[in-house]
Each structure stands twice: as C-alpha cells, then as structure tokens.
Amino acid sequence: MAKYSKKAGDKVERAMHEEKAGTLKSGRSGKKVTSRKQAIAIGLSEARKEGAKVPAKKSAGAPAKKTSGRTAAKKSSPKKSSK
C-alpha cells in the first residue's frame, strides 16, 4: 500500500473539514467544492507543493501497462516458410 507522510494526512484532513463546512474553494474558478474525492485531491496537491511525501499522481487517461514474458519469446522466433 502507498505510504503518505503525516503532513499529507494533515493537509487532507484540513481540506475535508473545509469541504464539510462549505468553505473549501477550487483552484482557478474559485467554486465551492462539494465532492469528498475532490477535497482529498486538493489536500494531496497542497501537500505535494510543500514537499511532503506523497506517491506520484496516476496519469489521467493512460491505461495500465501490461508486461508479459511471452511477447519477447514470440518476437525472437524466426518465421517458417511454407513451400
């Protein structure tokens, strides 16, 4: 499981309290945050900016990379010619 620093936990906790109170605002637009997930993301983002130990963000649209040992074996075998 991913490891988060104490500072990261504190930032997320503060963001969650603000979201619940209705005072947490989103970045550029300044709109009120209503989602718990968004509040967590804001807390982690703030922690990252301050240099807290937070795992790297997952890339948004990229599918998970699959690795298999069999693909290398298939590529190395020569093709047989049929006569």
- The helix/strand order is HHH
- Beta strands, count: 0
Helix fraction, binned, reads 40-55%
C-alpha end-to-end distance: 56 Å
Task: Explain what the structure shows.
With 83 residues, the chain is mainly α. The protein has a domain of 54 residues. The chain is 46% helix and 0% strand. The chain has three helices and no strands. α1 crosses α2. It is elongated, with a radius of gyration of 22 Å.
Tell me the layout of helices and strands:
Layout: H1 6-21, H2 36-49, H3 69-76
Helix pairs in contact: 1-2
Short structural summary:
By secondary structure, this protein is mostly helical. Helix content is 46%, strand content 0%. The chain has helices at residues 6-21, 36-49, 69-76.
Keywords:
83 residues; mainly alpha
